[in-house]
Amino acid sequence: MMPPRTNQPGGGQAGGSGPGTRRAGGRWSRARRDKADPQGTPRSDNHRSAGTSPLSDPEDTTDPLPAEERQIRTTFLRLRGTADALLAAADAGRSAATGAYEIAERDAARRTHRAVQKAEADADNAYEEARDTLANRVGRIAPFAASADWDAPGWRSDDWLGTGPARYVRIGSLSVPGADPRQSGAHPDQLPALVPLLDVGSLGLIAEGDDKDWPIRTMHSVLLRALAAAPPGRLEIVTYDPRIRGVTSPFAALRKAGNDLLADPLATPNELLARLTLLRAAVMRVAELAGAHGVPDLATLTEVTGVQPEPYRLVVVCDYPYGVDSRAQTELIRLAEGGPHRGVSLLVHHDPRVVPDDGVNPAELLRHLNVARGRNSAITVNALPAVTVRPDQPPPRELIERVSARVAEGARRGAAPVVEFEPLLPEPDKLWTEDAIRGMTAKIGRAGLDTVELELRGSDPSLPNVLIGGASGQGKSNLLLVLLHSIAASYSPDEVAMFLLDFKDGLEFDRLGPRPGRPWHLPHARVLGLEGDRAFGLAVLRYLDGEFRRRAEQFRLAGANDLAGYRTLRPNETVPRLLLVIDEFQVLVAEDDDIARASIVILETLARRGRAVGVHLVLASQTLSGIETLVTKERSIFGQFPWRVSLKTEASESEAVLGRQNTEAAQLRFRGEIVFNREYGDPAHNRRGVVAYADEQRLDALRRTLWEKAGRPAAPRVFYAARPSDPNLLTAALQRVLTDAPPGDDTKFALLGLPVDVDPAPVAFGLTADPGRTLAVVGDGRDDAFGTLGAVVWSLAAQHVRGGAEFVLLDAVGGDAGSPETALLAEAAGAYDHGVTRYTGGAVGGGLSELARIVDERIASGGKHADLTAERRPIYVLGIGLHRAARLDHYDDTGTVPTDALRTLVREGPLVDVHLIGWWNSLRVFSEHVGYEYAPLVGGYVFLRVPEADVQGVLGPYLRYQAQLHRGLFCDLSHGGRPVPVVPFGLPERGR
Ligand SMILES: Nc1ncnc2c1ncn2[C@@H]1O[C@H](COP(=O)(O)OP(=O)(O)OP(=O)(O)O)[C@@H](O)[C@H]1O
């Protein structure tokens, strides 16, 4: 009895049949066996086919069989051999028994009959054993989704998804010898008919007659099986559908994971050619990696390295050779030849009625494929010679859609394998042991077992600059951090200095600087420009441009051609390479304005010539395509960027970053996965890798170690676009101002803020007993106005001996109670025991009148250059929001008009050491208060948020000004100074 066979997913059950049945019909009768072979293959043919494999072309000796396949072939041979032997034994035994029965005694006949029965049973067992082994083996090489019936329960669960790339898939079923599918009551003894696919082969489908239906059905079933079996996201379907039949449309749900798993079908020969070229490049990459690791195919490579460097690709070609020109044909043949072991298999539907293009001979492609040919009822497969295969029913559409959706979901959830950063870093005792004389190398990730090394060099070969792309969220910030920390760990700050600009909204580089309570920082960072300030970006470029020119001259005088030459001549000098990294650099250059134009000019210079003096650029962007301002500069700037690195992004961005026709970054699947290329994006030199993951805690620990190792150096220049200058820097700023002042100069400096510049020489207004030493802060922005006035008060207070100055605070913005900020100003002055007088609300006018009286008195009693006795201490008058002061132009109780008093302060105050520093929120009110005739006596202006026209009204019609939070424009008119953008200090105690 043959037991029910359920031990492999695709197999049906084989019903049992007793000896009687055998005798009556002869399970092993020749007739039956021949019926099982509808083509009536002669016995000798059967013997020949028994000597072939069910799975591969016997003529094909070029391709050694995988071990698994070889075993199956052997078992299949055994099965057929056993069946044949059994049949022969049964036939012989039966006729012997019949003869014996007729001519001999009963007992002898019975004995003979028993012997026949035993022979049949033995053969039956042997058959079953071989058949089970075969079923098991088939189940093993094409498990679960690769061969199961469509109604198998496993399709309803996720358990079958991602069990492994389908090396063999079922396309139908075949009857093994001896089973009769047509005998009622008897279950056909069937096996799944498998064809080789991923990692092993390609498949061609040829419809005979008018039956075009089964190739499409078979395509669907092959695609579905392959898709379900591959780890989600690791198999991509590329479709060439020149007759636009929508063959792969049932799989549309795959697009929920982006456009990679099922890219839009290609429909023209050019599109096909472009894609095949990229696929060839991918095949070459896998071939190279596989060769380097000494493994035969992508599956083994993945197993050995733990990283699948490329996804599998199934290239579906419909109606071949329709729409295939000779160039595409050549590429298809190449892929059919070399693709399968490297992850690219073809699934070609051949329409023999199509007249091929010139130079296209379909046979040349088909000979590299396993071809299935036939019609709905029966097909022959050249991998299964002399066997008729019944094609499977198509998978239900609902099943295709469900599996596609599940695979897309799995792909979306999945991530690239995480590459650890630590193993790429030098051992702790090897930190900073590299020198950057010739260049510097960042170890940023892995490509298989190899390390991805970005080597930046001036020459031999010239690899100075890197262009980096990648869509949002794909890991660009992580990549930049890995790059910076890798260099920082290998080279000391004497070898490499970093200028880092971030034009993103986020604050990725923020962590590289110090923070409150965390003094350590990346000691290589000289400048951190955060939150994307374009003016500061330009300032950094100008600084580097200056450095470039300075070094060029220095090297020239020393007789050196480049940094390496100079360092060899002067081994004891410290001349670090300068690494400028700009994230989202397109923000700096995309607008059509002065900043963009000036930035582009400098970038061009640094890109072309910076390498010689050791300046290197790393420019990163998520949207580079379509930037008008760069179009004409593409060559002159990016022509100097041999390194191209892209994380996953759209095809157009991929081309913008990697190079024309290089859309490979659009094929990437996972965050952190990159295409890198050091040949200016030539697609033939694309390589793929995975960037190491920079865990912030570890990076922070590394920065701390490096900072300690560097001897706890001073913080870099950190510039936040959207923040006021750090009031903690006030002391250092004042020291810098006083140090820069000429010796013996007794000017008192009112600190205003820091410039938008790399080297933060502070912006200050000098107060001397000269006409014009009045400062007007004009514009909206209470915080910035108070920040400015706070720095003024604090800095002036600090420059006088204790109790040596008077501060008069005219607070028009805080009502009668006075504003809290004014209280802070009073505190700052009081801390040095200076006199502090406050006038608030309605008293401000009176205060002005009182001050005018003092000025008059001082003039009357000593005039200009009076001695600074205790009674004649300098008086600093802070006009706080004078636009809010009521009725300044009305007579007060003393018969004075406060605006007149104000004009007295402006006209004569400075001469007797009474200095007005006043804030008005508008130029109009300021002008009305001071009077148009006296306004020119105001020597210093800080513009905050005012219309450009107001600034132009004072500083000239050509000046461009765009108001911005925490930004001002300072100009010292009486010293003929140029307008300087300034970032006001914040109020030190804000928030308390
Ligand atoms: N190589 C990687 N390995 C593992 N995880 C990564 C890798 N790169 C990035 N990630 C993770 O992906 C997320 C996004 O990364 P990242 O912030 O670097 O992307 P981004 O491209 O800079 O994004 P955006 O431009 O939107 O700020 C982060 O949570 C990060 O931890």
UniProtKB/TrEMBL annotation:
SUPFAM superfamilies to which the protein is assigned, alphabetical: P-loop containing nucleoside triphosphate hydrolases
Signal peptide boundaries: none
Assigned keywords, A-Z: ATP-binding, Coiled coil, Nucleotide-binding
Tree of life domain: Bacteria
Coiled-coil boundaries: 109-136
Compositional bias (Gly residues): 9-19
Domain FtsK: 449-656
GO molecular function terms noted in the UniProt entry: ATP binding; DNA binding
One Pfam family in the UniProt entry: FtsK_SpoIIIE
Residue sites binding ATP per the record: 470-477
Region of interest (Disordered), residue spans: 1-68
PROSITE patterns: FTSK
Entry protein name: FtsK/SpoIIIE family protein
